[in-house]
Please model this.
Amino acid sequence: MTLAPPRRFFVETWGCQMNELDSQRLSSQLMQQGVLPTRDPQEADLILLNSCSVREKAAQKAYSRLGEYRVMKRHRPELLLGFCGCVAQQEGDRALERLPDLDFVIGPARVGEVGQVLQRRLSGRRVVATGFPDAAERNYDLDLLSREGTYKGMVTIIEGCNKKCTFCIVPSTRGPEQNRPMEHILAEVRHLLDFGFREIELLGQTVNHWRDPSTAADFAVLLDRVARIDGLERLRFVTSYPRDFTQDMVDQLGRHANICPYLHLPVQSGSDRILRLMGRGYDIELYRDLIGRLRTSRPGIALSTDIIVGFPGETDEDFEATLELISEVRFASIFAFKYSSRPGTAAPRLKVPIVEMGVADRRLQRLFALQKGIQLEINQTLVGETFDILVTSWGKQPGSQTGRTPCHRLLHFDFGEQAAELGSMTRVVVEKAFPHSLVGSRVAA
Ligand code: 5AD
Model:
């Protein structure tokens, strides 16, 4: 049976920035084949679900969303359904067995093949493209990157992860580390700047573990090279691994004004005992010392982190140590999660007592309450300050727009007489502070 080629596609994306970029790559390749994007799944004859498996809830959601799309397919048998992302990688053939009307499965390392996969499907067979080919065999065409949003260009520098954190499923869904060559990265950044982007975000699961595959250059060298490129106003990178953050990298943050004074540095727990059980390879002393050096190098730097509460073996005392760390460091924001057991990871086999759900829930609430107060206090100190804002969207209120400060805080502002162009820079004075955002007004440049 041959199927009709689709005319319109819809992509739904869950998870991290890597997945966001993968969705952009999927989209651009389809557009190259003449399939156009739509924001309405009802209008699409090809739907891609780009899934996340980092926590169980997200993974379950993938199958329930696919279930909803399958209902649509019952009424429209020509609808093609593709399962992508980290759950797709884990499930592979099993997904085709479970869902008889699923058309294809594409893992994160095979995103560059969506065109061929679709062609193969159209000429008859259902397709599974998973696993981890070498970087050299992966199709990564710069001209095939559609860039959604007019302000932030994302550039992958390292894919996969070689760490063995006992809670984390990423090494098995995104495979071992693969570094992109420095020259490719620099070329892509220049390409994006030529295209009009102001901000570049370098991406990697352990972004600061990047090494040029053929020279000794490390992430500090790369930061320096990228920051020196003409026309680059804002450089960010995510996610850094604490133990891999060298003094040379710390120094680069102090050296280049266009490297944003913002760093996401997941600590996961404030207890050395839990960090050991997690297999993180550092202790709180190392983390604390690193924060001190970052703040010396770049005064005022905004820091954010990830915390897991209720990791197996976590006692009240361990959790108190996390609260202490949060009070001490005063992060600009925190992403906190209840521990979720993931298939194939080592944590479920640890010989320690598991933490009851109710206990983990209460710990999470306490953590959020503490952090909310800290964020409000920090944000209140910014009232009266003026920032260069990268304008990212229209606000909810008429006459308002939204943007980001250099330290990545969300700022809603009155634009005055005339709106600023989306993707441009404008000056805004902060007038009010909330825990999760700032409010202000545009001022003359
Ligand atoms: N359970 C809960 N949170 C997790 N994370 C990763 N794996 C798990 C898990 N099994 C969190 C970590 C990581 C962030 C992206 O997701 O905090 O930094």
User: Anything to note?
Assistant: The domain at 290-380 is CATH 3.30.750.200 (Transcription Regulator spoIIAA).
